[in-house]
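New to this. Help decode the following:
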Amino acid sequence: MSTLANKIDFAVILSVKNANPNGDPLNGNRPRETYDGIGEISDVCIKRKIRNRLMDMGQPVFVQSDDKRADGFKSLKERADSVDELKKTKDSELYAKVACEKWMDVRSFGQVFAFKGNDVSVGVRGPVSVHPAFSVDPIDIASIQITKSVNSVTGDKKSSDTMGMKHCVPFGVYVFYGSINCQLAEKTGFTEEDAELIRKALISLFENDSSSARPDGSMEICKVFWWKHNCKTGQYSSAKVHRSLHIDQIEGKKAPGGNLPFRMEDYYTVTVDTLDGLTPEIYDGI
């Protein structure tokens, strides 16, 4: 496997229909939004979904969520200590090298290894950086009261927790950006094959991701733009590449309400400025 030799920038356009793309626990689990009403999905949430897709592809992942845990370890420390070389060494460079070789998400996103009782504290910077996703236009948030038909615990009276709230975004188009840095890829051993797996994960980001808040079909990857530069440092800055993508609402077009089907392209136009010598590969979500 060859270490990544060309800088990569990417952009992902996704649509939300009657779903909560990323609830805010400090705000009653309402969909995240800015003070301007722009919908937001945190970069942490996006990287969680990428990790889940990598696990679906059979890749070893260090930061596993409890509901996706595949190896039985109940904490990050248990997982790290399961590797003999990590448990024995006090050399931080060797520790980082072994961790990067062992887990794909470590050599992709980086990781801090600092556990109580360990003599070694190690920080790894990863080459894959991901921005938060923001909606193209301000979003509406619909809220409904929900009830439960049974008490959570046995009692003489119906418990007070029989009412709750559920929130969703009726419709929204979001975009997020990212890049893969060759200099950091050399340090973590991130390869061309790893970049290809990241691309595949982005295209299928919402597979096996359904929940009560995000039923199957309510979140869709519309387009993935993949710019592969001709050198390690890149022909253009990531900011300039990301800025070349434009998403505009078609005048007079408003997305349908309820559960009526829709296609993002019927309501938004997507264009890319020409950058001399750098043309994006464009993929539809699966």
Summary: The mean pLDDT is 92. Residues 20 and 168 are 5 Å apart (CA to CA).
